[in-house]
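Re: the multi-chain job from yesterday

Posting the exact lines I submitted so nobody has to dig through the queue logs.
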Amino acid sequence: MAALINKLEHEGARAICSRHGNKPEALLEILHKTQQADSYLSDEALRTIADALNISRAEIHGVVSFYHDYRREAPADHIIRICRAEACQAVGSEALAAHAEEKWLTPTGGVSADRQIGLEAVYCLGNCALGPAAMVDGELHGRVTPERLETLVARRVDEAEGA
Ligand code: FES
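And the result, structure tokens for all chains:
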């Protein structure tokens, strides 16, 4: 039984709860800090937080599902965000997004099977004059063609792999 309890324990989340005095009113801050540390909120982390704050798992799941900023799955290694707002649509962002979906075999809002690529829609990146605009791992690019997007992503993948 002790082994099972240990397996469900998330040390990082436990430490964050402790720093906040294990107070239920600090739940949002604790969730935020836990996600910052892990990039997402695992089942183990949520169970540990519920235990530390003495709140039900249903309660914590309700809070996590209410706020869209909380992630329940580990994010992809590389995130592509393609602007789908009007100005970018007018210059081809829909075709760019369709190309990306086909190239990385993932729907917008999804993650590729190998979890390497995540594809997201955004609605204006403040780069409207240089559409279609896209972000690759947080880096903004303008006048992005399908070929350029592939090159940008390949570069990020190579950098991450130390090539
Ligand atoms: S509409 Fe795409 S950057 Fe503004």
